Amino acid sequence: MRQQSIPVEQATPAFRLSHDVETNACVVSLPGPQYHPAFATGKNSDGANYWRQHIELGRFVEGALAGKLRFAPQVGRTLPLDVCAAYTDCWHCNETTGLVIDLCFAASRVLQGAADVMANIYDFDDEGRGAALLMSTLPAALLAHHGIGPIKPRYSRTEGQSYLSNGCVHCDALQGRFFDHEAAYDAQPVFSVDVLFDDRWLSHLEDREAIDKWWFDDRPAAHRGCGVAEEFRLMDGCY
Question: Which residue, of 78, 174, 189, 205, is most buried by count of CB atoms within 10 Å of its CB?
Fold first, then answer.
């Protein structure tokens, strides 16, 4: 994994092997969402943020042969969707309202060692499919229960167009994107809903770094699906 030419993809299951001289132990490390071969080299190659799982070599080989290697393990799973919000004063009515800043598909709570997937509401601002998906998942009544205004398309005179946006929970005034940036540092997880993380969500996420990674599924066999052998046979994944 010190070669910059080695990609991490479904067709190339590449992993890092390290040896501890003192214990004479060999450990296999799987790349995490922040791993990129151009950066994880030289002095930075041991950075903890680059590696998601560490498995003793013997256990890794045994598990790989038993189908414990999975690619993009989050896909097809029901995951907690954490809604991270910040609270600010509405520019129009001066009442306090919540803004949805980030969305986190918390895969790590379901699949130990799997990467969480981050998004924001603007990822779903398309011809209507993404907006409808997000609005049905986070209905106005649920958001209002947490002091957050409805997420829906609103017309912005500043931008001269409509876009999927936060609104005031009291007067529904559009809270522009720049409000999000001002409040982002104060954002905290407010509530969570369970969603099926399938192509309806994937098709709107441009950043696939956290998704397109290998994962070692060390759960009991009854809880596992297909593994690396099936991945190569099907190539379109086993979800």
Answer: 174
